[in-house]
């Protein structure tokens, strides 16, 4: 599989497909809300070392639209969450998405995916591009079939999934785990009807509703693979067992600027071994450095 040697060039190409400026903001998930809270473990076997009522910092965001886009056009949603004290061995950082599998296996293929799905083309041309991409990358079909075009009432309308498999070793036995966050209060979840007039919603309605719903709770769930299910990020795990590891309680908006947590901090788990996970770490690091350098050179 191809690997990326020049991350700045990669970021510029990705930003070109999305019509964003990689020196000014995140290419994807640009608009986000930071929320603080705690995590209470109910199953400690997999979470060795996490303190009781461990601190939590979570960032909720939409994938598309930039920092000024309308939330109804943000596509899928995501959560970047840190559980545990920053800089400690138990610090665990997870990037989760509102679909349980990913579109591609490598960062290089992600460039082709972004180009194929770019909104900077007619809808007819876009559909042709997507069909061509799927023909070359049949592994993308399952993730694209999960695209939920319903309009969420809140970030709490979604479940969130790590598409990467984390490794645990207990008593010398290694096991694989995909982690999920699932809101516990069904009264704050829901979707608008298909004909709901989006123009009635404010640009930041997802973020405003999340803040209005605080405090909220989400279960942290571990899902293990079933027979024939592998670490392939494009393959859904549906037949294995699952268990609740604990509860994330989010209670307060964080207004001060926050440094983006490192995905390489996997706490009690060994890092995922798939190529995309390694490349995501490198890409995010390069993107942060690019934005930081640009900010330092501005008058």
SSE blueprint:
Elements: H1 7-18, E1 32-41, E2 54-62, E3 77-83, E4 92-97, H2 107-117, H3 123-136, H4 141-145, E5 151-152, E6 160-161, E7 166-170, E8 173-183, E9 191-192, H5 205-213, E10 216-223, E11 242-253, H6 275-297
Antiparallel strand pairs: 1-2, 1-11, 2-3, 3-4, 5-9, 6-8, 7-8, 8-10, 10-11
Helix pairs in contact: 1-2, 2-3
Describe, in plain words, how this protein is organized in 3D:
Strands 1, 2, 3, 4, 6, 7, 8, 10 and 11 form a nine-stranded antiparallel β-sheet that branches. Strands 5-9 form a two-stranded antiparallel sheet. 25% of the residues lie in helices and 25% in strands. The chain has 299 residues and is α+β, with helices and mostly antiparallel strands. The chain contains six helices and eleven strands.
Tell me, briefly, the overall form. globular
CATH class: Mainly Beta
Q: Pairing-aware structural class of the strands and helices? A: alpha+beta
Tell me the helix content.
10-25%
Measured on Cα atoms, how large is the radius of gyration? Answer: 19 Å
CATH architecture: Beta Barrel
The CATH topology name reads Catalase HpII,  Chain A, domain 1
Briefly summarize what is shown.
The chain has 299 residues and is α+β, with helices and mostly antiparallel strands. It has helices spanning 7-18, 107-117, 123-136, 141-145, 205-213, 275-297, and strands at residues 32-41, 54-62, 77-83, 92-97, 151-152, 160-161, 166-170, 173-183, 191-192, 216-223, 242-253.
């Amino acid at each position: 599989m191809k690997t990326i040697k020049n991350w700045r060039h990669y970021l510029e190409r990705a930003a070109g497909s999305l019509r964003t400026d990689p020196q000014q903001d995140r290419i994807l998930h640009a608009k986000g809300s930071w929320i603080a809270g705690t995590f209470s473990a109910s199953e400690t076997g997999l979470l060795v070392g996490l303190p009781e009522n461990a601190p939590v910092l979570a960032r909720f965001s939409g994938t598309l639209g930039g920092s000024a886009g309308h939330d109804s056009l943000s596509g899928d949603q995501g959560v970047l969450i840190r559980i545990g004290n920053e800089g400690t061995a138990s610090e665990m950082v997870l990037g989760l998405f509102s679909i349980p599998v990913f579109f591609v296996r490598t960062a290089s293929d992600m460039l082709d995916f972004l180009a194929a799905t770019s909104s900077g083309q007619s809808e007819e041309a876009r559909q042709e591009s997507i069909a061509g991409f799927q023909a070359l990358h049949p592994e993308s079909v399952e993730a694209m079939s999960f695209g939920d075009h319903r309009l969420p009432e809140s970030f709490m309308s979604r479940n969130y999934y790590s598409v990467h498999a984390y490794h645990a070793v207990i008593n010398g036995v290694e096991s694989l785990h995909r982690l999920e966050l699932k809101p516990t209060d069904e009264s704050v979840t829901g979707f608008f009807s298909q004909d709901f007039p989006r123009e009635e919603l404010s640009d930041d309605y997802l973020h405003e509703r999340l803040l209005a719903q605080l405090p909220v709770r989400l279960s942290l769930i571990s899902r293990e693979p079933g027979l024939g299910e592998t670490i392939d990020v494009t393959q859904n795990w549906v037949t294995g067992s699952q268990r609740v590891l604990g509860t994330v309680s989010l209670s307060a908006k964080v207004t001060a600027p926050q440094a983006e947590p490192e995905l390489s901090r996997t706490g009690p788990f060994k890092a995922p071994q798939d190529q995309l996970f390694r490349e995501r770490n490198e890409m995010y690091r390069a993107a942060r450095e690019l934005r930081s350098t640009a900010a330092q050179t501005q008058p």
